[in-house]
Structure formats: C-alpha cells, structure tokens
Amino acid sequence: MEALLEDESISLVVASQDWHPANHVSFASAHPSGTAKPFTSFDYYHPLQPDQPIKQELWPDHCVQGTRGAEIEPELAEKLEAITPGCLRAAGFAPKTTDEVARGPTGKEVILVQKGDDLAADGYSAFSLNGNIGFTNLPRTLLTWRRKSSSHSEPSAATDGSDIIDTLILCGLATDYCCLRTALDARRFGFRTIVVEDGMRGVAPDTVSSAWEDMKRWGCERVKTADEAIRLAQTRQT
C-alpha cells in the first residue's frame, strides 16, 4: 500500500472506511431474534426494496462510528493527510500540525468514501450498498474527476484522455467481501481493475478462493505485488 501511495503515476487515492451506526443491520447483536450468532446469515427486506430479499451476513460489532474500531490505521492516516490535508476530517481524524507532517507526493489527491452508514443496509462495496439499493459518492467522483494541474488548484486540460480515471488498483480488507464487491462494481462501471494479492487479506479460505474466481470471471487483473500493479497499469489493454 505504501508503494502505491508513493508512486507518482497514481493521481487519485480513494480511502474507503466502514462507518457503521450502532445497532447496524450487519451486527449479530442487533438481530431481532436476540440469539443470532456472528458468521451466520439471514435474508431481510429493505424499505426501498420491500419485495426483494437481501442476504445479510452477520458479524461481531465493528467499525462503529466515532469509535477506535472505525479509525483508519494511524500511520496510514498520516500518510493520506500528508497528501491531501483535511481529507480524513469526516472520519474524525486529527492530523499533526502542518509543520510536523512530511508532505506526500505532489500531483496526487486523496478522497474518503464512508460506507455501511445506512442503519438498515450494509455496504461491502466502496461504490454501492448491498442489493444496489443505493450508492456512495465514489461512482460520480471517479466518472467526473480530472487530474489537477501542478498548481493543485485547477483541473488539467489534457485532450488525450490522460487526465481521467480509467484504471483502478485495489487492495485492502477483506478479499472475499469488501474487496470482491468493490472490484466487481468497478468492472460494472467500466474501469480496468487490477487487484493486488499481497495487499489483501480474506476471512476464510473457501470464500477467498471463490472471490478470486469471481474477480477473474469479471475481467479483473490479478497481480502479486504493488510494483507489478503499477507496471501493468501503465500498459494498454489489447
């Protein structure tokens, strides 16, 4: 992940953050039965889709808004804030003073996407809520984003398409849930999608294996390391 943050060819960094309210639908502790166990699942109906069931996996309470469990890892957060000061303000992150922060690469921007913040719907993907009943700000951001000029104040005026986002390099947690759903959504929105094996960890071997197969079937390109991903991203697809 650090190699990706430091590479000058990468213009936009998207940090996704689970940001669940207390009693979130994904918490076993919040299940109406009062006896549900983590790592089981059930079907439920969201008010926006009352006739179509959504499968919901149950988890231990995690990433509750405003708690330590929801925080972005401090060392990573400092690196992100060094690139775009204030980018993690919505996450409640208090960066060091400007004088204490080592400035990150120029010509790069960081945005924060908070997901899973709907009490009645989970959101594995950084693009959408489960069941596609809603979307985060990420699709619009990626489809309308333009590379900033060296002044960091104005979009560039490239006419060869080099100022737009067409390739995503994906890493994070967990391979078989959030990474999988984000990768598939990226392909649905038409982005070339490169997934970095060394930058991901999964929940269980069986679901991880299935996730890799699903990503391959959807046209994601799998590499071992960040350096391989960077080199691959600089090649044209045939």
Automatic annotation (TrEMBL):
One of the GO biological process terms = pyridine nucleotide biosynthetic process
Give every Isochorismatase-like domain span.
165-221
Any idea which UniProt keywords this protein has? Hydrolase, Metal-binding, Pyridine nucleotide biosynthesis
Enzyme Commission number, as recorded: 3.5.1.19
Q: Which InterPro entries match?
A: Isochorismatase-like_dom (IPR000868), Isochorismatase-like_sf (IPR036380), Isochorismatase_Nicotinamidase (IPR052347)
- Provide a Gene Ontology MF annotation, just one: nicotinamidase activity
List the pathway annotation: Cofactor biosynthesis; nicotinate biosynthesis; nicotinate from nicotinamide: step 1/1
What is the top-level taxon of the source organism? Eukaryota
* Record keyword Protein transport present: no
Has keyword rRNA-binding?
A: no
**Family of the protein in this entry:** Belongs to the isochorismatase family.
Protein name according to UniProt: nicotinamidase
Q: What organism is this sequence from?
A: Tilletia horrida
